[in-house]
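JOB MANIFEST
job_type = single_chain_structure
chain_count = 1
residues = 86
[input]
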Amino acid sequence: MRKTNFNVYRAVRKTSLYIETEVDRALARRAAAEGISKAEVIRRALSVAAEAAPPPRPSAHGVFDGPADLSVEVDRHLADTSFGEA
């Protein structure tokens, strides 16, 4: 858990990454200039990048398959598939 500015705790995951020496130095300079840690600079940059990611696709199989007009044309689609016929 990580404490935010408003005394709110949120779940976080620890990760490690390798960066070039110059990138590390640039992060240190930016962190010093903003008065925050390098980790916070990285977290903020990753948050911005994550916001630009496409939304997750639904993972429920079968729920989103089928005709787009199914809800308004249910009777026609049931008739087309012979649903309920012996």
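[summary]
Residues 2-80 form one domain.
Residues 12 and 38 are 16 Å apart (CA to CA).
exit_status = 0
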